[in-house]
Write a structure and sequence with these properties.
Band7/mec-2_domain; alpha+beta; Band_7/SPFH_dom_sf; STML2-like_C; Tetrahydropterin Synthase, Chain A; three-stranded antiparallel sheet; mitochondrion; about 60% helix; about 350 residues; single chain
Length: about 350
């Protein structure tokens, strides 16, 4: 009897090893592998085993031995990253725009026990959760923010899925929105808005260029005026310095001439030389009469050069004499009478010239 049992056990082991020698064990019509006593579990897979209808254990990758009839492989879970296409669905944004949107979901089973007994179909459950979460998140955003905050929208959907799928033993790694389809009228409005925005930016850039150009021109004119004023200032300073030098030189020359003349007058026959000079100047001045104006003042005897020279020498002698103390009042009164007489004689001469 023991020999029969041994032969039976040997036959079971041989059949199990023969079935397990292939790339994968033979599966039943439901897609689950059979209990062949000796089983080889592939890497990145978890086989959930039930004993008499109750969870028993999870087979690790490699060689595993089960008891026939009592043990049954109930679930086979893949531990690889799973890619699920989320079907296209409609969603309404915050500004009441209907969008057609789809996406791709990347997830991984972290706990085979929860994935087997926590939910009936993990992939379907996660897909439905992703769709509902996407609709709720899109309802919080306007149309413009949907395109600008795409990454934040994906992150919000991933967080919501992970919070709900934690009890299922599933972890959502990332979610990506593939396509967003907007209604044709909304698309036309968006294109018009983009064109208007581009025209606005072009106008702003053109106005900024005009402003910069005007500022540069004004700055150039300002610098030119400043340089011109500085040049004019320097010119006036140089001209004033030149005129001052010329006046100083003339004054020095005149002072030197007067000094030489005074020295000459003190010498012998100085009065005769002075009389000769006065006579020459009188003749020169008389020759220039009536050249610049029609009104002429002439003395009573213009042909008497001797009297004119004598009168000039008398004035010179009066100026060279020192004033006598105590005679100031008499001189002043006499001077006033002489001036009055001179004025009267000048008036008579002026009337005579007009009559002639």
């Amino acid at each position: 009897m023991l020999a029969r049992a041994a032969r039976g056990t040997g036959a079971l082991l041989l059949r199990g090893s023969t079935q397990a020698s292939g790339r994968a064990p033979r599966r039943t019509s439901s897609g689950l592998p059979r209990n062949t006593v000796v089983l080889f579990v592939p890497q990145q897979e978890a086989w959930v085993v039930e004993r008499m209808g109750r969870f028993h254990r999870i087979l690790e990758p490699g060689l595993n031995i089960l008891i026939p009839v009592l043990d049954r492989i109930r679930y086979v879970q893949s531990l690889k990253e799973i890619v699920i296409n989320v079907p296209e669905q409609s969603a309404v944004t915050l500004d009441n725009v209907t969008l057609q949107i789809d996406g791709v979901l990347y997830l991984r089973i972290m706990d085979p026990y929860k994935a087997s007994y926590g939910v009936e179909d993990p992939e379907y459950a996660v897909t439905q959760l992703a769709q509902t979460t996407m609709r709720s998140e899109l309802g919080k955003l306007s149309l413009d923010k949907v395109f600008r905050e795409r990454e934040s929208l994906n992150a919000s959907i991933v967080d919501a899925i992970n919070q709900a799928a934690d009890c299922w033993g599933i972890r959502c790694l990332r979610y990506e929105i593939k396509d967003i389809h907007v209604p044709p009228r909304v698309k036309e409005s968006m294109q018009m808005q983009v064109e208007a925005e581009r025209r606005k930016r072009a106008t702003v850039l053109e106005s900024e260029g005009t402003r910069e150009s005007a500022i540069n021109v004004a700055e150039g004119k300002k610098q030119a005026q400043i340089l011109a004023s500085e040049a004019e200032k320097a010119e006036q300073i140089n001209q004033a310095a030149g005129e001052a030098s010329a006046v100083l030189a003339k004054a020095k020359a005149k002072a030197e001439a007067i000094r030489i003349l005074a020295a000459a007058l003190t010498q012998h026959n100085g009065d005769a030389a002075a009389s000769l000079t006065v006579a020459e100047q009188y003749v020169s001045a008389f020759s220039k009469l009536a050249k610049d104006s029609n009104t002429i003042l002439l003395p009573s005897n213009p042909g008497d050069v001797t009297s004119m020279v004598a009168q000039a020498m008398g004035v010179y002698g009066a100026l060279t004499k020192a004033p006598v103390p105590g005679a100031q009042d008499s001189v002043s009164s006499g001077s006033s009478r002489d001036v009055q007489g001179t004025d009267a004689s000048l008036d008579e001469e002026f009337d005579r010239v007009k009559l002639s």
